[in-house]
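Fold this complex.
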Amino acid sequence: MTAKGVLMEPLPTPLRAAHPAGERLVSVVVPVVERVDDLVALYREFTPELATRGERFEFVFVFDGGFEPSPELLLLSREIADIHLLRFAQRFGETAALRLGIERSRGEVILTLPAYPQVRPEGLAPLLDAVDGGADMAVANRSPRLDSWLNRMQSRAFHQILGGISDHRFHDMACGVRAMSRRVAEALPLYGDMHRFIPAIAMREGFVVQEVAVPQHPRNAGTRVYGPAVYFRRLLDIATFFFLAKFTEKPLRFFGLVGSAFLGVGGIVSFALLVERLQGNPIANRPLLLLGVLLIALGVQLIGLGLVGEIIVHLRAPHRRAYRVRERI
Amino acid sequence: MTVPGTPAAPPPAPDLSVVAPLYNESENVKPLVEWIVQALEGDRRSYEIILVDDGSRDDTWAQVVQAAAADHRIRGLRLGRNVGQTAAMMAGFDHAQGQVVVSLDGDLQNDPRDIPALIAKLDEGYDLVCGWRERRQDKLLLRKVPSWVANRIIRRLTGVPITDNGCSLKAYRRTLLSRISLYAEQHRFIPALSASVGARIAEMPVRHHARRFGESKYGISRTVKVLADLITLKMITTFRSRPLVGFITASLPPLGAALVFTILWLVALTQFAPVKSTALVFPGAAALWLATALYLFMLGLVAEVALRTEQASANATPTAWEVG
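Structure:
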């Protein structure tokens, strides 16, 4: 994908040319990562629902490194021209898979679908309707949730934290079922592990994001228990998102704050020692002096880093716009 | 700058663009437009009014649509979300077509009747004319005093003799706007930024009114942030073409401190030989200071690399002004 993944760039061009004969193409992008069910069964389960809408649709399966399409799926893809299979040579993760799927698909509307049934097939139509109704993106909110109370608690905690730091509260960002127009999909800054925050990112980018209640698939229910490493990674993701959301334009606000705290404490310690020295007490044997200097050094380093960040932001300023025009008259 | 969705055959560009950012100013839209139209009645320039709705949560946009329907000179921009005054102004500037652009607050505190005078001043050969709220109608302690202090500091630091940096009522020559790019909360530093690209700047007193409708979006906590931003901006504009010099300058004090501790250490070694082991604190401190100086030097190199990369990609040409 082209390097449009920079936070907050204006849209280059509006929609691609519409399909002839008024027939719209919907691209279903399925990133095959981490967890995968029988994809042929998945295809068979979801296609009838899409077919009833009278739109053309294509399926783009993106296999992450280590995942292979099953022989049945390969056969099916030879039979049906609108099934495309892509495979990464290495493990690149879900965000990269989504990007590739978006890039290689041709549909005007993009529907992302996990490689296992998360929602019931009839839930797709309301999502597409929401996009037709003017939303830039429609995200599924699995409700009612059939999961165990443990998973629901985790999910709630995750969304509470995120809601506190971004301006909108979503209820089910872990759900991979989303519909969006192509222009939105291509403008999303997708990199790293940012797929977890797609609704919040789209929101920050100035797009209209709508949450649609969609019944959860019974096979998606149950209790999932993760290891501590997973929770730790989630926390890091949240921290990254928080930093990007708050300080991409003003890195020094963040680094400066932390750096000043270090600098302040270091300064106080050093000053106290200086006063002691002036009173005649020797300080050559005071390890506290090292602490004071260390803190000052850390503070200076952090502020210096923030400044470099500011210089980079400043240099980028002529190319970026912090706003996105939603409507013009 | 190319603007997405520009119609194929646009009507002739107006001479003057008036840009007003609006955030939750529903009641102010109609009177604002009426005022501007009245103020520009006698002027023979053609003009457009660009109303930028900065993600308002009230029905500001509906008001803008209504106003635009009634008068073809009124254009509206609705932003995807609330991005703040600087970015909203930038949106208006990017879409403005006039050779002269005037910005003013959407809250009726600026008086559009001052616009003709501002433009007349601009025509005397300036690139930027700033309004100066001589009799400011705001709360003394919360708004005027902090503003006075901030403006004094801004003047001192930037060396641009503008009394009132915070006044939104300003007139710009288009060529200036294409040379400065604002981001974050930099609209207050427009004079300073303009001066840094060599613009000719003037100032003139303008009227100021107390707020009639709606609420002010400013508080006193802003002053601290403004000052921090200013210091940052000052550093960046001073050293943006040679960041390494800046960082080397910054590494001199740590280097000096390292030297001081080294001397102290040598003194301790020679004078108090019996307590050699305790004198380890001094070389430690000296090493830390030295490391800091080195680190700053390295950071300067990184900044230099960033600058080179950016300039190579942007094909940056030095600013040159058309004179006359």
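Chain B has a mean pLDDT of 84.
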